[in-house]
Write a structure and sequence with these properties.
heterodimer; A: mainly alpha; 15 helices; about 70% helix; globular; B: mainly alpha; two-stranded antiparallel sheet; 13 helices; about 75% helix; about 0% strand
Chain lengths: ~325, ~280
């Protein structure tokens, strides 16, 4: 990290930056930098912008050729459609009509909020499972030496590479044999297994860096290894634990393949549910966009928290900065 | 934890290898017949598999290649030129964390034949005369998902680059400047050597994420038309859950598995080297 740099050095770096560049050819370089930055910004943010404006367009406007860059009449029609179809598919239309006197009828019959509830259930379950087992395993792997440890670590790292399409068929057979097909429990177990290696890597890095003096102090106070884990390590690692929880949660929240194969459409989570929106000849893209935005909110909230752990976690803690 | 991973990750891998030797239908799994290497022979002899393997190759090399180059540039821009790089790095993460289906649907919409913005852009720029049905054309249907995948992966590589730039001690540059090193020499002799492990890890990650990807293609084209945008994972899904041919799907899984094994082997090797160096110092 650049933490060692003094103010002087910091100043030196700022002054050599392009704003103060007076050497020949500076204008060309400025223009090049500005252009490439703009290009990157458009490429990265363009699709996101498009999703947001599409969600606020009317059904008539999304079919217009050429497409409008900025919606001409902003409308929450698409969001209303998502909410209405949820109420209808979830069977709350009668309730709403009696209570608010508003009749709900929707051409789309997809319960978006039901999907979100399913997803929350599965993701929270999987993340709890992964954090519980992953943290304990990380503790053991970090504090004890035993035969085959490096093999085990490699195996965990390798299993990070493999989940997904390569094992979906046997996974389907396994879940079927266990009688867990079309249950959220089955998906929780699969996701828990898939994400716990992640948690192990994240938490092991944290435990490895843990100051030994605190552990020594605890040992002096006659703590058993379990007590040490429970009363010293865990409370002092809350940040990392929350980060790995969100990590595991996001993985489970976004996963498509297993949700598609291990559930039937009545129990779908968000990813396969959104897919049913996209399918079909006459896709209502403004509704898809609105549903996508609603489904992305938990992810974006999580992102705010784990941002600094993200790269570290993705590379298995390989890059420590 | 071991039991969980063992049951749901390692056992299925073994199971896939075992199933790949059987002629087996998803609808009647009890009527499985031992078929030896028949599935593999069929894969070897089938014309579609060549197309699929070629698609997979193009998908992985072009997708990862562009993502790596673009990502490196983005990371460098953020480090050298951009104030508030941390804000930018938070924003840049959005494509990566957004639910994959969401990202893929945005791109599917943008590429769609009649209402898509991409076609309009191409026409405005004068590159084509009329709208192309990109997702439904055998000639180009592989490319829209590649663009989507680059959008998803390049920011990740940019962040890896940014972190490794930040990990390099400024004093090294200061010393190099004192010795009269040009910016290119500084880059060549300080930046690149110090970043090589991070770059190698990022490179392997890109390959692995790319070859594993399923949702981008499935949401956008379903691998079609025909097999024109089918990669190995998509073909496995089709064989298993559309054609109900488990034996064949398992054999393909083993194939994919072997490819991934090679990548993972190198990943772990590079990783161990990094660990060795950081522990050694």
């Amino acid at each position: 990290m650049a933490t060692e740099s003094t103010d002087e050095l910091e100043e030196f770096r700022t002054n050599t930056s392009w704003l103060y560049d007076t050497t020949p050819g500076a204008y060309v370089r400025h223009a090049f930098t500005a252009a490439s930055t703009a290009l990157v910004a458009v490429f990265v943010l363009g699709p996101l912008y498009w999703m947001v404006v599409t969600a606020f367009k009317t059904k008539a406007e999304i079919q217009r050729i050429p497409p409008t860059i900025v919606p001409q009449d902003w409308s929450i029609q698409a969001f209303v459609a998502v909410i209405e179809s949820s109420l209808q598919a979830g069977g709350y239309d009668g309730f709403v009509e009696r209570t608010f006197g508003v009749s709900v009828s929707s051409a789309i019959d997809i319960d978006v909020f039901g999907l979100i509830v399913s997803s929350l259930k599965v993701s929270v379950g999987a993340a709890l499972l992964a954090v519980l087992f992953g943290t304990m395993a990380a503790y053991v792997l970090s504090r004890h030496d035993f035969r085959g440890k490096s093999v085990l670590m490699s195996l965990l790292l390798a299993s990070l590479m493999f989940p997904g399409t390569a094992i979906m068929v046997p996974e389907w057979e396994l879940i079927n044999t266990l009688g867990l097909f079309d249950t959220h429990l089955g998906l929780i177990l699969v996701y828990g297994a898939m994400t716990s290696p992640f948690v192990v890597w994240l938490m092991k890095g944290h435990f490895d860096d843990f100051p030994g003096s605190i552990l020594d102090a605890a040992r002096m106070d006659q703590c058993s290894p379990f007590e040490m884990f429970r009363y010293v390590l865990v409370p002092m690692s809350v940040n990392s634990i929350i980060a790995s929880f969100i990590f595991a949660f996001l993985l489970a929240w976004n996963e498509l393949v297993f949700a598609l194969t291990l559930l039937s459409n009545t129990k779908y989570t968000v990813p396969p549910g959104l897919l049913t929106f996209v399918q079909g000849f006459n896709t209502q893209w403004n509704v898809v966009a609105a549903a996508s935005i609603i489904a992305s909110i938990p992810v974006l909230l999580g992102l705010a928290y784990i941002q600094r752990y993200f790269v570290q976690g993705l590379t298995g803690g390989a890059i420590k900065g | 934890m071991i039991a969980l991973v063992g049951t749901f990750i390692l056992y299925p891998i073994a199971r896939a290898i075992y199933s790949s030797f059987f002629q087996k239908s998803l609808l009647r799994p009890e009527e499985a017949q031992f078929a030896g290497l028949a599935n593999y022979a069929e894969i070897w002899g089938s014309p579609t598999i060549h197309q699929v393997l070629w698609n997979t190759f193009v998908w992985v090399t072009v997708g990862s290649g562009v993502a790596i180059v673009a990502g490196f540039m983005m990371g460098w821009l953020m480090y050298e030129k951009l104030p508030y790089a941390s804000v930018a790095s938070a924003i840049i993460l959005i494509p990566w964390v957004l639910p994959r289906v969401v990202g893929a649907s945005i791109w599917a919409f943008m590429f769609s034949g009649s209402q898509g913005i991409i076609n309009e852009l191409l026409v405005t720029l004068g590159l084509t005369q009329e709208y192309i049905v990109m997702l439904g054309s055998t000639d180009v249907s592989l490319w829209p998902p590649i663009v989507g995948m680059i959008w998803r992966l390049a920011p990740l590589f940019a962040l890896l680059t940014l972190t490794s730039f930040q990990g390099i001690n400024d004093r090294l540059y200061e010393a190099a400047r004192m010795d009269g090193a040009t910016p290119w020499e500084q880059f060549r002799y300080i930046t690149l050597p110090l970043m090589r492990y991070n770059l190698a890890i990022g490179f392997l990650l890109m390959l692995i994420y790319n070859i594993r990807n399923f949702s981008m293609i499935w949401v956008m084209t379903k691998g079609g038309p025909g097999v024109s945008s089918t990669t190995l994972p998509v073909m496995i899904y089709r064989q298993a859950f559309v054609d109900f041919n488990i034996g064949m799907a398992s054999a393909l899984s083993v194939l994919l598995f072997l490819v991934l094994l090679v990548f993972s082997y190198y990943y772990i090797k590079v990783y161990d080297q990094v660990q060795g160096e950081t522990n050694g110092n």
